[in-house]
Design brief:
The chain is α+β, with helices and mostly antiparallel strands. The protein folds into four domains: 100 residues, Alpha-Beta Plaits; 91 residues, MutS, DNA mismatch repair protein, domain I (3-Layer(aba) Sandwich), CATH 3.40.1170.60; 52 residues, DNA polymerase, domain 1; 106 residues, 2-Layer Sandwich (Dna Ligase, domain 1). The strands form three sheets. Strands 6-7-1-8-9 form a five-stranded mixed beta sheet, sandwiched between helices. It starts with a helix and ends in a 31-residue tail after the last strand. The structure holds a DNA duplex.
Amino acid sequence: MTVCWQLLRGLFSALVACALFRVVLMTLVRRIAHLDMDAFYASVELLRYPQLKGLPVVIGGRWRREDDVLARAAADGTLASIPLEDFPRIRDYVGRGVSTTATYAARQFGVGSAMGIMKAAKLCPDAIMLPVDFDEYRKYSRLFKSVILEHAPLMENRGVDEVYIDFTEVEGGQQEGGRKLAEKIQSAIFSATGLTCSVGVAPNKLLAKMASEFNKPNGISIVHEADLESLIWPLPCRKINGIGPRTDEKLKRFGIETIRDLALREQGWLTENFGESYGAWLYRAARGLDERPVVTSSEPVSMSRETTFGEDLHAVANKAELGAIFTRLCEQVAADLERKGYVGKTVGIKIRYDNFKAATRDHTADFYTADAKVIRQLAGQCLKRVPLERRIRLLGVRVGSLVRRDEVDESGHLPGELPRSRKKADPNLSLFDDL
DNA sequence: TCTGGGGTCCTAGGACCC
DNA sequence: TCTGGGGTCCTAGGACCC
């Protein structure tokens, strides 16, 4: 009898504890952070070249430091003492390319990212120019992300310099709307890397992304649901992540400039003019509604390599050169697939003509592969189906429909996968051929 | 002397199957 | 033989993001 009573009591207190826990959980408010490194590439370069602080610097172009002053200094370990006059200047740059990013001092001259180098050189000829060094940025990217993971386990990668973090159930994530945890992460990143970042914390990703821009650099901003009308609605529509230049232009034609203007439109009007799915999304976005979870891992869908030539090439006149580039792109994609452990069955090509118009062709094989020769063969077939009269400025190779290499057998098929027999209408094959 | 490279997702039409 | 709807896959292009 006593045992039975004790059991019941144990059960009862477990139930109470469980219920209490649920109450605590239910009082947790969803807090999502967006963290954005401040001027990431430029800041990483300044760690190497502190002598460039405050100067106009443009990072970009299509060149590698091989034989120049930067490479020699890197080899000697004297990067930080290169005299200013020895740095390459943008006015000496030759050829095609765009500015990937520019420091604040360069922006004062009107130089922006994604701007042609030649245009940037006219605006600020004395700007110092550095090549893009992705390996170095990736190194710092891994470093700051590992610091974040020490504080919060639910982190979603958004490229080299951005992440989303789910603060909801992290210690301190609820304090002051997330400010305490944001401060902690910010200072931990600075101690580990010497780099600053900006953080926005809000009820969802959409608002957190906007919030992280409010207080740059090295800032924190906290947004609550109640701040929608005061903080979000006055912003231009373009600030919404997912409204790009085309949609923004179209919205403006309807007289919609701010997010408030957008929120005033009825859902039916939006779906009529922007499509069922996008219109419905616009309706929700304008109201700050977004349920997307923070996703900690994802599988790649495709891998590709592409290159813009130093000067436009023609399929006939530059056949040999193009062929060599084409083969190299296939080999690079194959090596990427191999290194990361994937195989794919859709092989495609991309061409950009001298008039900047693009064309793509692809072909889905009935097997998976990561073999350079096979990719080259299939991509070659795609190339035959695209017009090649114009000169072309860019060539790309893509492999999609990826699965992990260890999921397929030696013949390149998934277990239990039926080969899909697609009877293509072949114009050369008349009905009479069957007789 | 315009306009990089690597991605994701959506749409729309056609083929094909049930 | 004709009609037809739903679902899936494939292809080409385009918007968008970092």
